[in-house]
Specification:
Residues 23-276 form the EAL domain. It comes from Kineococcus endophyticus. This is EAL domain-containing protein. The chain has helices at 2-35, 73-80, 85-107, 122-125, 130-141, 154-157, 161-172, 189-192, 204-207, 212-227, 240-248, 268-274; strands spanning 39-48, 54-65, 69-71, 115-119, 148-153, 176-182, 199-202, 231-234, 253-254, 263-264. The chain is of the alpha/beta class. An eight-stranded mixed beta barrel has the order 1-2-4-5-6-7-8-9, surrounded by five helices. It is globular and about 55 Å long. The termini are far apart. It binds ligand C2E and calcium ion (3 copies).
Length: 278
């Protein structure tokens, strides 16, 4: 029995070692990817449910790994979040998306005049560099702060006073703040009235559900957001029936495969035009 016990410990040790090695390799690779320009941003349109127009897009990172194709963020963001690498990635995403926005403007057509939402990790929000990072990306691209939104997940937003102050500072210069994945964390209705945010993104899990009580919950959230002066984006909309249900509860805007998948920069103008019929 003793031997078997030791055997198990060794196996466990081995697995752990392998997992840590894999994580370290991924981290090294990602560090290199940032330097060697292997990361790209794809953009997903956000559609106005009243007019069918697209006024903003969300920037979503992908890793173009040589010989392996596009690696989705779910694979490498968690690894990046274990270190300050996530802040480097955040700076890169801010700079790249705002520069691209200026390029879309210059090209004219359906891609011009858009706003962009960039995902910011909790670790970056807790870093004192965030405000400078945002300011310098805005300055370098010559983009108006009003055209940038930062998406921050609900869980991060709750406690930290310094983080709240940072959000207030960014809002004061005109940057919009969005709560991402709303409904998956612990924000209460009471907190909704006080959080320094402009936009609430309702998590896909609520949009997905046919359960009448979930639909009622979405109606309540949309109503509360309205009365607190927040705009609402429903995430992960895949079907026409979901569009109609969201319109019925007064939701402003939506995002999802029904309208467009996230697309590369060169395909964005076509995707924006394609969203118009709702
Ligand atoms: P998220 O911010 O909640 O982004 C939405 C995710 O839902 C994206 O996955 C998007 O492709 C996917 N999606 C959009 N519409 C639909 C739909 O109709 N159905 C379904 N099933 N999925 C849909 P993606 O691009 O794989 O990103 C996953 C997560 O990785 C993001 O979730 C975000 O948390 C993180 N992420 C992506 N880019 C960045 C980034 O630049 N910085 C940071 N810190 N995190 C990022
Ligand atoms: Ca997001
Ligand atoms: Ca989300
Ligand atoms: Ca998410």
């Amino acid at each position: 029995a003793k031997n078997a016990g030791r055997g198990r410990v060794e196996v466990y040790d081995d697995d752990l070692r392998q997992a840590l090695a894999a994580q370290a390799a991924l981290e090294d690779g990602l560090r290199r990817a940032l330097v060697e320009d292997e990361l790209v941003l794809h953009y997903q349109p956000v559609t106005d449910l009243e007019t069918g127009r697209v006024r903003s897009v969300e920037a979503l990172v992908r890793w173009q790994k040589p010989g392996e194709g596009l690696v989705p963020p779910g694979v490498f963001i968690p690894v990046a979040e274990a270190s300050d690498l996530i802040c480097d990635l955040g700076r890169w995403a801010l700079k790249t998306s705002l520069t691209q926005l200026a390029e879309f403007d210059a090209a004219g057509g359906p891609g011009s005049g858009l706003k962009v939402a960039v995902n910011i990790s909790g670790r970056h929000l807790r870093s004192p560099r965030l405000v400078d990072d945002v300011r310098s990306a805005l300055e370098a691209s010559g983009t108006a702060p009003q055209r940038l939104a930062l998406e921050i997940t609900e869980t991060v937003m709750v406690e930290d006073d310094a983080a709240w102050a940072r959000l207030e500072e960014l809002r004061a210069i005109g940057v919009q703040i969005a709560i991402d994945d709303f409904g998956t964390g612990y924000t209460s209705f009471g907190q909704l009235a006080r959080v320094p945010v402009d936009v609430l993104k309702i998590d896909r899990s609520f949009v997905d559900s046919d359960d009448p009580r979930t639909v009622e919950l979405v109606r309540l959230v949309v109503g509360a957001a309205r009365s607190f002066g927040l705009r609402v984006v429903a995430e992960g909309v895949e079907q026409a029936s979901q569009v109609h249900a969201l319109q019925a509860v007064g939701c402003d805007t939506a995002q999802g495969y029904y309208f467009s998948r996230p697309v590369s920069a060169d395909r964005l103008p076509a995707a924006v035009t394609g969203c118009h019929e709702i």
